[in-house]
Amino acid sequence: MTLSNAHPNRQDYAPHPLNDPILRLPEVERQTGLKKTHIYALVRKSKFPTPIKLGERASGWLSSEIRQWIQDRIAVSRSRFPPPPK
């Protein structure tokens, strides 16, 4: 499994806004356990979803993209360290 910013502009996927809320930075930090500086460093390296510009001084992330990034990290982690045999 490759891990990248695999969240391109999907023209075939348009979730309903109420089902895919936009998360502001404090919530993204809480959900991922990462801090602002590291999040933006990962965005620059295309290893984290790109924020959506909401206004002149506001941005946020789609909840679905953050959930998918977390699931990708779990999958990568589990593939590197499989559970011990029983």
UniProtKB/TrEMBL annotation:
UniProt name for this protein: AlpA family transcriptional regulator
Region (Disordered) residue spans: 1-21
Pfam families according to UniProt: Phage_AlpA
InterPro entries: AlpA, Prophage_regulatory_activator
Gene3D superfamilies linked to this entry: 1.10.238.160
